[in-house]
Structures are given as structure tokens and as C-alpha cells.
């Protein structure tokens, strides 16, 4: 599976299509007294197929190293979800991760990765202290997702906003 970073966490889930392992790795580039700094992350979704493991998809991302704007990237597991939002018997994984910028969360990035019907749907958000610095990019297919799935994402965004981890506008 070409796992090169230390394994941070593994989730197991099953649906009508089979059993899966979702392996999350973070690079652990430096470890200080209070925190671990990762320059890269990788997640691999693996289907357990009759004593054989088959990679279904993966996620890779890195910090932006230009001008030392970001110091770390990591998975935000408290916002993960592994549910069947549309009652079709298939789990729709929601994975969230983000970065720390020069001002902590205030200028870091956040990504929501949603897997639905074999497609990867992404919401990319750049936090910023000033209005013009913030930007949210939403894949068009997001708007076609089932209402319960969209509501879950919007609820996670509202929670992030309340917890001071994101500055989203309410206009989208």
C-alpha cells in the first residue's frame, strides 16, 4: 500500500459492498514538547477482499512551504463521519483535515473530503483574518448530494466556526 508515514489512526467500517479499513498517516516531521508538526498526510481506503487487501482510493496533501506560511497539517478526526446518509446501504465517508498558518487556525486551510457514489467531492477553505483573505471553493457536485449529507457538512462548518477553528461566511 506504500505506507511511508507513521500510522496515526485506523477506522474499520462495513456496508453492503464489503468491509473496509481506512488508514490515516501523518509524517511526524518534528515533535516538540507540546505538539507534533506534520508536513504531509496520507489516507488510504482499503477493501478487505477474501484474504486480500485492495486499495480503493487515497488522499495526499502537504503544507504550503512557500514563505513558511504553514507549519503543520493533520487530520481533524472529531469532524469525521462514516454514515449511510441516503439509506442506500453504502457508507459515505467524510474526512476533514486542516493546517496551521502563521496565526494558528486564523490563516490555515481546511478541506472536507466526501466520498459519494464513487466520487470524491471536496470543499476547500482558506481562513484569513481579513475578509478578502478568506475563500471557500465548493465542488459543484456538492449541491447535488442528499439533503442529510449536505446538512451534516453545514453542521460541521457551524461547529468549527463556534469553536474558533474556521471563519465561514453564511452566504453559500
Structure in words:
With 172 residues, this protein is mostly beta strands. The chain has one domain. It is built from 1 helix and 12 strands; from the N terminus they run ββββββββββββα. Strands 7, 8, 9, 10, 11 and 12 form a 6-stranded antiparallel sheet that branches. The chain has a 4-stranded antiparallel sheet with strand order 1-2-5-6, with no helix packed on it. The protein has a two-stranded antiparallel sheet with strand order 3-4. The longest helix has 16 residues. It is globular. The N and C termini lie far apart (38 Å).
How is the secondary structure organized here?
Elements lengths: L6 E9 L2 E9 L3 E2 L4 E2 L2 E10 L2 E11 L7 E6 L5 E3 L8 E10 L7 E8 L2 E8 L8 E4 L8 H16 L10
Antiparallel strand pairs: 1-2, 2-5, 3-4, 5-6, 7-9, 8-9, 9-10, 10-11, 11-12
